[in-house]
Amino acid sequence: MDTFPRPEPTFHVQQDAAEATTETLIAGFSEFGLVGLTAADYLVDHLEMEQTGHVSTAELPTITPFENGTPRHPIRLFTHQDRPLSVLVSELFVPPAVAEPFSRALFEEFAQTELSDVAVMSGVPIPHGPEDHRTFYVATEDYQRKRLAEVDVPPMGSGFVDGVNANLLSRAIDSSLAVGLFTTPAHAQAPDVDAALRLVETITEVYDLDVDTEPLRSFAEEVQQYYADLAERMERVQEPERAEDRMYM
After folding, report:
1. Considering the entire predicted model, what is its pTM?
2. Quick one: which of 131, 145, 172, 196 has the most CB atoms within 10 Å?
3. Pairing state of beta strands 117-124 and 24-29?
């Protein structure tokens, strides 16, 4: 049995000097329905942002995503060319147990910059009906005054959040950094593109971004139709056939 205590995971943020001009950081993490991640990735793509940094860790089991045969860092920072805006895209799931050192690394990295507010996009897997398909917020009071006074986004009634979202909010309560969590009900399937679309539309309104959401809307309709067709197909499958067919889902 291993009796030696394991070291606390440490996170190291590496970024270009251009990040010092960032006033707003928008973040999306790999979690329920891949909602925040999908929304953040969409913003990066359609705002034509450039990668200017990444977050690394040595003590946490990691992944190495790749595209067209080229690997990339799983947690990346992107910067907008024409405005003081950065987006953090995390394809790596950050476990709640290491949320504190992760959040600490971000706060320390941006402490000496012009960063004034952070927006986190997230999906929450709660039972809900069509009337609940909207975005809610949990935000520090200074974030509410700064960003939410003139937008139609309702507050989340009551409850609690955990993990990175909770740690970022709790650190911001007693700091000069305003933090807002935008969350929307998410379905079990991934990606929940409808939920990601709601978050993109909300962030677009809050930060007055010029983002065309039609491509994501079309993709959401395709995904919705795919799962509807899959459910209909499974209802038609006889029970003996279903056992043989599950491995292909």
Report:
1. 0.84
2. 196
3. parallel
Distance CA 87, CA 48 (A): 11
Which amino acid, 190?
A: A
CATH ID of 11-212, from 3.30.565.10, 3.40.50.10900, 3.60.15.10, 3.40.50.1010 = 3.40.50.10900
Tell me the H-state helices in 207-246: 214-236, 239-245
Contact assessment for residue 36 and residue 27, using Cβ atoms and an 8 Å cutoff: yes
Task: Name the amino acid, one letter, at 114.
Answer: E
Residue 173 vs residues 21, 27, 60, 84, 194: alpha-carbon distances, Å: 23, 18, 28, 23, 31
pLDDT digit string (tens) for the chain, length 249 residues: 455 455 677 888 888 765 567 899 999 998 888 899 999 999 999 999 999 999 988 777 678 888 889 999 999 999 988 889 999 999 988 889 899 999 999 988 888 788 999 999 999 887 666 667 899 999 999 999 999 999 999 999 888 889 999 999 999 998 999 999 999 998 876 678 889 999 999 999 999 999 998 888 888 777 677 666 766 766 766 455 444 444 334
Sequence spans of domains, the chain: 11-212, 213-249
64: its two tokens: 């190495």
Q: State the sign of the Cα–Cα–Cα–Cα dihedral 50, 54, 107, 102.
A: positive
Helix (H) or strand (E) holding 78: strand 75-79
